[in-house]
Amino acid sequence: MENAITTTRKLKMKFLTGDGNEHNIILNYVKDGLKEGSGAQLVKAAMDEVVAQQPINGSIASANGAEVIETTTTDVEM
Q: What are phi and psi for residue 25, nearest 5 degrees?
């Protein structure tokens, strides 16, 4: 039997608060293609909206970058 391999992606959006601290929002199971081009523009637009709407406690002053985190999992054959 062959081991099953799965890859999952998370989007980590990084923000700076009004006092200079970093605050992160992580979204699970994001679609492929967010690292460049129109996908990167979509991430930037989402981050700009978070800054504009202030949906969490505290003050988000600005977007400070984003990362796509890919995790590959291989089942152990038993």
A: -120, 125
- Separation between Cα atoms, residue 26 and residue 72, nearest integer Å: 17
Q: Which of 6, 24, 1 is nearest to 74 (CA)?
A: 6
pLDDT at 3: 82
Q: Is 51 helix (H, G, I), strand (E, B) or coil?
A: helix
Q: Which of 43, 33, 36, 37 is nearest to 13 (CA)?
A: 43
How many CB atoms within 10 Å of residue 35? 14
**pTM to 2 decimals?**
0.84
The Cα–Cα gap between 38 and 36 comes to 6
For 16-61, write each residue's pLDDT tens digit.
998 889 999 999 999 999 999 999 999 999 999 999 999 887 789 9
The answer to whether 64 and 12 are in contact (CB under 8 A) is: no
